[in-house]
Specification:
heterodimer; A: 328 residues; alpha/beta; Rossmann fold; 2 domains; seven-stranded mixed β-sheet; five-stranded mixed β-sheet; 39% helix; 19% strand; B: 363 residues; six-stranded parallel β-sheet; two-stranded antiparallel ribbon; 8 strands; 45% helix; globular; binds thiamine diphosphate; binds magnesium ion
């Protein structure tokens, strides 16, 4: 099948654009999404194509962005609300955690909240402590909300489409570092290409160790796997893609084969993705475990501005390789 | 789609209350000039260094164009008063007398930087100067300002907290909650809204239902000193003097500074390159509302030929900034794990720590 390399940013733009063309109830709002063409250029051209009614610049009012989307969704629209970066979604955490995630539950199914929160996420580029978070696990904490975190262009396309079409609220994060990264998309891609919410994916097969990751962590895991292969170690890379629901079945299947696991994430180490996966593994896969489960995450520190120490704090492929070597 | 650039006339409505001027002395005016040319030289140098990749990162928001706003208002303070702002903080730091060397070193993430390289451009601060910092989350510093002012009220001191906040930030919940609390607790805060027409690419008119932003504060019962032409340091000073004195005795006050950013939102802002209407607007401000020229004209009209001394200030600014660059570039980068981790927590005997403790930081 013929394929072409497409940057993740373009894939997300395409998915969003097609969904807006497909369904008049889908609208976009957020800071600088219209005239500025999106801080990360995801919504470039949208204002021209869809007009101000459906492409709305908001004030710097995250609480209201978060909550207005809930109301609009309850009333039957399908908002795609953008947080310029996920750092600013903290200001909307109440609307997200208490209302987007819960109104359906506390009114016992009376309402649906078919919304998507999109947010650029991740560390690096000396963005400094308050602009340097990959806090997806925080949002995945809350039942009632789904959380999707793609690692490549095709996944981003199919995951965002599913998120928009699904009747549940979804928080969808987009790694800033992956926006420009090209990866293959088939030429004859079906506009209804949907990745089921909660379905993980094997990004590389191998029998010696399982690397579990999501979003940018998948990149590090794949790089590490290539490096390990040179030493004859075949790593299997499991991309969970969604933090909620979590496709543990896929992890168990891989783990039964490899009996070893390193979990890779961009986020902070305490109360984390890594902790969650490891806990599930030891509960269910104790009999298959040949070595301690390792976690590679960011250092347990707020991110500094200065370049060299910022890099020290971040996970990378080498840290993954080192962790694997400790348990082989 | 029709795009409406900010209507300058609407923006420059000068409040009647600013008219009766406190008169600064000749020394003050000359010193303001010194401060303003230092800021301009510093900011334009930062801009150049960024283009040359000698300053790195993604955020660098310059104060060029805003000089009179900071200089005129801080001149109304006394040494024990407090200042806090957002990320457009270089000018504020320099006005307060922070060492340009430490500020430039912070831009480059050096150990000798005012925040040891941890904070960068958006997080300058100096305890010695009662400068409580620059903050990067829009509106996030506003409740902190109220808290700093509360300490003064609580302890019976009459120090004022001068707080700068952007036009865009007035649409954020932080703004409304903080202003309201400052009103009900009579906190000595002077809220200065630096209305430069835009929050990133969004004009005030597209972001705020009330475009006279100081009126938002009025709605909470805060005393408004109206709008001020903040390209004119003398007008800024006159109004700030009154507002600061009011806040010292009574409670919160608000002033709306009408100003303009010369270098766009930040280094990533390409709007002025891409859009003729915006570059024309910028040109107009530079040609007709240039704060350094306005001050210079004023000094000359009052005191005649001051060329020599102004030229000296300009030469000094160049020298000081060049020295700051040399100092910063010669300084060491933080590079160790210890550099990374230190100051996450206060070292404390009250924290139980063993070799196996997780999450207590190191000291
Ligand atoms: C809570 C939050 N939302 C969004 C941003 C991104 N952002 C940074 S500055 C800015 C514009 C602020 O404009 P304004 O308050 O007018 O200040 P100015 O930059 O003009 O000085 C935005 C949207 C942020 N830093 N924090
Ligand atoms: Mg502004």
């Amino acid at each position: 099948m013929a394929a072409r390399n497409v940057a993740m940013r373009e894939a997300i733009r395409r998915a969003l654009r097609e969904e807006m063309q497909r369904d008049e109830d889908v609208f976009v709002m957020g800071e600088e999404v219209a005239y500025w063409q999106g801080t990360h250029r995801v919504t470039r051209g949208f204002l021209e194509e869809f007009g101000e009614r459906r492409v709305r610049d908001t004030p710097i009012s995250e609480m209201a962005i978060g909550g207005l989307a809930v109301g609009a969704a309850m009333a039957g629209l399908r908002p795609v609300a953008e947080f310029m970066t996920i750092n600013f979604a903290f200001l909307a955490l109440d609307a997200i955690a208490n209302h987007a995630a819960k109104v359906r539950y506390f009114f016992d199914g009376m309402f649906k909240v078919p919304l998507v929160y999109r947010a650029a996420s991740g560390w690096g580029n000396q963005a400094t402590a308050s602009h340097s978070h990959a806090p997806e696990p925080i949002f995945a904490h809350f039942p009632g909300l789904f959380v999707g975190c793609p690692s490549n262009s095709l996944d981003a396309y199919g995951m965002l489409k599913a998120s928009i079409r699904d009747d549940n609220p979804v928080l969808f994060t987009e790694s800033i570092a992956l926006y420009p990264k090209p990866s293959p998309m088939p030429d004859d891609l079906d506009e209804d290409y949907l990745i089921p919410i909660g379905k993980g994916d094997i990004k590389r097969e191998g029998a010696d160790v399982t690397l579990v990751a999501y979003a940018r962590g998948v990149d590090w895991a794949l790089q590490a796997a290539r490096q390990l292969a040179r030493d004859g170690v075949e790593a299997e890379v499991v991309d969970l893609r969604w933090l909620r629901p979590l496709d543990m079945e896929l992890v168990y299947k891989s783990f039964k084969k490899t009996n070893r696991c390193v979990i890779v994430e961009e986020s902070l180490p305490m109360y984390s993705f890594g902790g969650e996966i490891a806990a599930n593994l030891q509960e269910r896969m104790f009999d298959y475990m040949d070595a301690p489960i390792k976690r590679v995450a960011a250092e347990d520190v707020p991110l500094p501005y200065s370049k060299d120490i910022e890099l020290l704090a971040l996970p990378d492929a080498q840290k993954v390789v080192d962790a694997v070597k400790e348990i082989l | 789609m029709v795009y409406l650039p900010t209507d300058m006339k609407k923006q420059i409505a000068i409040a009647a209350e600013g008219k009766a001027m406190a008169s600064p002395t000749k020394e003050m005016l000359l010193d303001w000039y010194r401060q303003m040319v230092l800021i301009r030289e510093f900011e334009e140098t930062c801009h150049r260094l960024y283009e040359e990749k000698r300053i790195t990162g993604v955020y660098l928001h310059l104060y060029s164009g805003h000089e009179a706003s900071g200089v005129g208002s801080m001149a109304a303070l006394r040494a024990t008063d407090h200042v806090i702002t957002a990320y457009r903080d270089h000018g504020i730091a320099l006005i307060l007398g922070m060492d340009p060397k430490a500020v430039m070193a912070e831009m480059m993430g050096k150990k000798t930087g005012s925040s040891g390289g941890k904070g960068g451009s958006m997080h300058l601060a100096s305890k010695d100067h009662n400068f409580w910092g620059g903050y990067a989350i829009v509106g996030g510093h506003l409740p902190l300002a109220a808290g700093i002012a509360m300490e003064a009220r609580y302890r019976g001191k009459d120090d004022v907290t001068l707080t700068y906040v952007g036009d865009g930030a007035t649409n954020n919940g932080y703004f409304h909650e903080s202003l309201n609390m400052s009103a009900i607790w009579d906190l000595p805060v002077v809220w200065i809204i630096e209305n430069n027409g835009y929050g990133m690419g969004t004009e005030v008119e597209r972001a705020s239902g009330q475009i006279e932003l100081h009126r938002k504060a009025e709605a909470y019962g805060i005393k408004s000193f109206g709008r001020v032409d903040a390209q004119n340091a003398l007008e800024v000073y006159a109004v700030a003097t009154k507002a600061v004195e009011y806040a010292r005795k009574n409670g919160p006050a608000v002033i709306e500074h009408v100003t303009y950013r010369y270098r766009g939102h930040g280094v990533s802002d390409k709007q002025y390159d891409a859009r003729d209407d915006m570059s024309a607007e910028l040109k107009k401000w530079m040609e007709t509302r240039e704060p350094i020229k306005i001050l210079r004209d004023c000094i000359e009209s009052k005191y005649g030929d001051v060329n020599e001394i102004l030229a000296r200030h300009e030469a000094d600014a160049e020298r000081i900034v060049a020295e700051s660059v040399a100092f910063a570039e010669a300084s060491e980068m933080p590079s160790s794990y210890e550099d990374l981790l230190q100051n996450t927590y206060v070292a404390s005997d009250l924290v139980y720590k063993t070799d196996q403790s997780v999450g207590a930081g190191i000291d």
